[in-house]
Amino acid sequence: MPADPHAPRHHVRPPANWANDPNGPFRWRGRYHLFYQHNPYALTHTDMHWGHASSPDLARWTRHPIALTPTPGGPDEAGCWSGCVIDDAGVPTAVYTGIDHHHTGLGTICLARAADPDDESLDRWKPLPEPVVAAPPDGLETTMFRDPFVFSHTGRRWALVGAGHADGTPSVLLYDCEDLTSWRFAGILLDGRHPVAADAFGDKAVGWECPQLFETARGDRVLAVALWDGDPRTTGYLAGSLEPDDAGGLTFAPRTGGRLDHGRDFYAPAVLQDHATGRALLWGWSWESRTPQEIERAGWAGVLTSPRVVDLHPDGTLHTAPAQELELLRAAAPFVTAPVPTPLPDAYDLRITARTRITASLLRAASGAGLTLCLDPAAGTVTLDRSGWPRERSDGAAPLVLPAGPLGASELEVRVLVDGSLLEVFAGDRAVATERFYRRPDDVSELTVTDDTVGGADLGDRAEVTGWALVPPTND
Ligand code: FRU
Prior knowledge:
Blueprint: E1 17-28, E2 31-39, E3 49-55, E4 62-68, E5 79-88, E6 91-99, E7 108-114, E8 125-127, E9 142-153, E10 156-165, E11 170-176, E12 184-191, H1 195-201, E13 207-215, E14 221-228, E15 234-244, E16 250-259, E17 267-274, E18 279-286, H2 292-298, E19 300-301, E20 303-304, E21 308-312, E22 318-322, E23 342-343, E24 347-354, E25 358-364, E26 370-376, E27 381-385, E28 400-403, E29 412-419, E30 422-427, E31 431-436, E32 446-451, E33 463-469
This protein binds beta-D-fructofuranose.
C-alpha cells in the first residue's frame, strides 16, 4: 500500500488505531519516555491502554510495546486513562486514572510500577491491585474526577486531579501524596469561579481535565488545563504562584492567563519539568478533523504534537517555542533560502521573517484558495487562513489571529512545522496554533510569498525564508 500522505512520520503515534492524550512524559537514564492514550484494537475512544515511545533527543522516537493494559476485574478494567510518570525512590511509577465498568466520569487513582527499574526500556509495568484513591472527596458533588499530576513543592510531594462539580464549576483538586501509597485530600487548588480564570477561559468548561503545573525560569508557576466540555474544546494556562493555605494545603493564585494553543486541533496537555536541561516541555494531542469514513479508510486517528518549550515572558504571557532538538530532523541542506516560489515536501520546517506585511501561501486549491499565513509586524499578528479546506467540526473556518508580538515591531518571525496533515505554526515565541489539514489530490503544495503593501513577489530584504525537509522518517 502506498504510504499515507496525511500520516505524520516524525511525531509520536501508534502504528494503527486510536490515540489521544500524551501521558507521563518522563526522563529516565538520559532518555525521554512518552506515553499516550491508545486503543490498539479500534478507531474509537474506548478501551484505553497506554502506548509508549522513547527518544534520546526529543526528535527521533522509537516505539515500545504497550505499557499499561486494563486488568480484568481490576480498578482499570474499562480503561487506563490519563496520568503521569514519576521517579518514586528510584522506581519509575505511573500514576493514572482507572476506569471500571460502572464509572460515570469518576475515575480512581491507580499506580503501576516499572517491573524492573534496571531495565532501561521501561517496557514492563506492574499495576497495583487496589487504587490509592478510590473515589473523589466527600461533600464536593464531584461529577468528573481524573488525570492525576504529581509534583514537588516545598520539599513535599503533591498531586493535582482534574475535576468538575454538579453546579457546572470546573476545578483542580489537590492531594498530599508524600507517601505515594497513602493520599490525603488537601483542598481545592483553584476553581473556575476565580475571576482571573473566568476571564482567561470564559465560562465554557464544566470540568478541567489534564491539569499540569510547571515552574518558569523566574520561579513563577503556570497551571495548564484542558477545558472540558466547552464547544469548541480548548486548552488554557494561568500564570501565578502557589500559596500555602490555613489547612496546610496550597492554593493557586493566578495573575494572568490565556490560550495554551490557539489552533482548533490541540487538546490534553502533558508537561515534563526537565530538570536536566532546566526547562519545561509540553506536548498535546491533535485529533483528526476529517470524516469518520476517511478515518476508517486511513486506519489510524490521533497524533501527539511536537515538544514545545514553555515559559513566561516578563509580561506574564506564555512563551512557547519548538524544542531546539527538532532541528535535528532538518535535512543537511535547506530546500529554500529565499522568498521565491518553491514546491513544498510532505514534511518540513520553515522559518519566515517579515519586515513588512507579507502573505505566505503553503498550499493552493484548484479553486485558487490558498492556505495562507499573513505576517503583520506592525500589528504584531500572524493570521492563519485555511478556509479553503473545510472542516468536519462545527468550529468554523474563520481565520485564526495569533498574537505574535508587540504592536509596531519592525520584524516578525514565524516557524512552521508540517508533518503530513499536522500543521504547527509558532508565531514568534508568543503563540502557537495546531491545526490539521488534509491535502486533496488536486491541491498544489507550493510556497509563495507576496508583499501585501506594495504587491508582487519581489521582496528584497523585506522577507527571509529558509526551509528544510524533515528526515529521516521514523514512523514507517
Ligand atoms: C482528555 C481525557 C482525559 C481522560 C482521557 C481518556 O482527552 O478525556 O480526561 O483521562 O482523555 O482517554
